[in-house]
Specification:
This protein is an alpha+beta fold. It is built from 16 helices and 5 strands. The chain has 4 domains: about 80 residues, no CATH class; about 110 residues, no CATH class; about 90 residues, Cytochrome Bc1 Complex, Chain D, domain 2 (Orthogonal Bundle), CATH 1.10.760; about 45 residues, Roll (SH3 type barrels). Helix 2 packs across helix 3, helix 3 runs parallel beside helix 5 and helix 4 crosses helix 7. It is globular and about 70 Å long.
């Protein structure tokens, strides 16, 4: 059965418990365990994915026939439904307890740095890594997982860990930096660089125009700074605030930077925020997307549409400021801001 379902396009929900048992039972033959893992990666069942995390390290330690161990690893890494089960990886990685957690950590790293997929999964993965980095056991696990999966998206943090007071972590950081071929001096120089918030806006704009960044790092910052909470970059994503997938075809580099540093200076057409106060005391802020005689439909920056009956609106006021707060980029260096701009300029829709 495991062999048949490993080749099938979909796995019936009723088959999951048996596949889980096959993946985890000590007496399961190596080939059947690998096939069970492959089959389970086609589901979105949290329990199935926890079983995958526990069983795959055992599979990879064997030499099953027909390269099944390699196929199981590929099925895990390339599973099309990873975004839908990101919470499982974050929870197991947070346990920082053995091979299953290490495998989950690698998945969290890949989800955090990937350019495709659900932005919510990417943001959650980055939040998980940010929280985990403050814990020594998890920090060590992240370093080792990054070296294992070849992910250098958090290179600056890895370089900083070279000076970690914990010698075990410092040693792991040295091994990871070496394996990923990261130049520590480059990142140390960046950490000493002035932050955008320390510069006059005109100085920051002038510097970022002539600075080249790293688009991959910019994609990571897009999530870390919180841009993806209010903006989308793909046409198939529910619209929130202004769509940024083609923003570089509308604005030049300086204008893009200015829109980030001074969000209220120029408000995008159709995205002037409105503040509503209802008679029951509820307050709603968002963009008006439909207006009829008896109701107004408002889209919040969380992409949620609310229909407000006109009879219930006590007060309505257009905002003269953007819903995007100022200072979001103040903690970035000029090169990091340049990286964020590079990411926006290389989006497929912006070309």
């Amino acid at each position: 059965m495991a062999g048949q379902l490993a080749e099938a396009e979909d796995v019936p929900a009723k088959a999951v418990p048996l596949l889980v048992r096959a993946a985890e039972a000590a007496e399961t033959p190596d080939a059947a365990r690998a096939q069970a893992v492959i089959a389970l990666t086609k589901t979105v069942d949290p329990g199935a994915w926890r079983a995958v995390l526990r069983a795959l390290p055992k599979v990879q330690a064997t030499k099953s026939e027909n390269n099944l161990a390699e196929k199981a690893g590929n099925a895990f890494h390339n599973a099309p439904k990873l975004d839908q089960v990101h919470g499982v990886f974050e929870a197991v990685a947070a346990e920082a307890d053995g091979p299953a957690s290490a495998l989950a950590e690698g998945a969290v790293l890949r989800l955090a740095s990937r350019k495709v997929g659900a932005p919510e999964a990417r943001a959650a993965a980055n939040a998980s890594l940010d929280a985990g980095w403050s814990q020594p056991r998890r920090r060590l696990q992240i370093l080792k997982a990054a070296a294992q999966v070849g992910d250098a998206s958090r290179a600056a943090a890895f370089v900083a860990a070279l000076d970690d007071p914990d010698p075990t972590i410092a040693k792991a950081a040295k091994e990871t930096v070496g394996r990923l071929k990261i130049d520590p001096e480059r990142f140390r120089a960046e950490s000493r660089a002035a932050k955008v918030g320390d510069l006059a806006v005109e100085d920051a704009l002038a510097q970022v125009q002539k600075t080249s960044g790293d688009a991959t790092r910019g994609a990571q910052l897009f999530g870390q700074v919180g841009c993806n909470g209010c903006h989308t970059v793909r046409p198939d994503e529910p619209l929130k605030g202004p769509y940024l997938g083609t923003i570089a075809t509308v604005y030049q580099r300086r204008e893009l930077a200015e829109a980030i540093l001074l969000p209220s200076k120029t408000l995008a057409q159709g995205f002037v925020a409105n503040h509503f106060e209802l008679k029951d005391g509820t307050e709603v802020d968002g963009f008006v997307v439909r207006e009829a005689a008896d109701a107004v439909t408002v889209r919040t920056i969380a992409a949620v549409e609310q229909t407000l009956p006109v009879a219930q609106i006590a007060r309505r006021e257009k905002q003269q400021r953007s819903l995007m707060p100022e200072g979001l980029a103040s903690g970035l260096t000029v090169r990091e801001l340049a990286s964020l701009l590079d990411y926006l300029e290389q989006l497929p829709g912006a070309k």
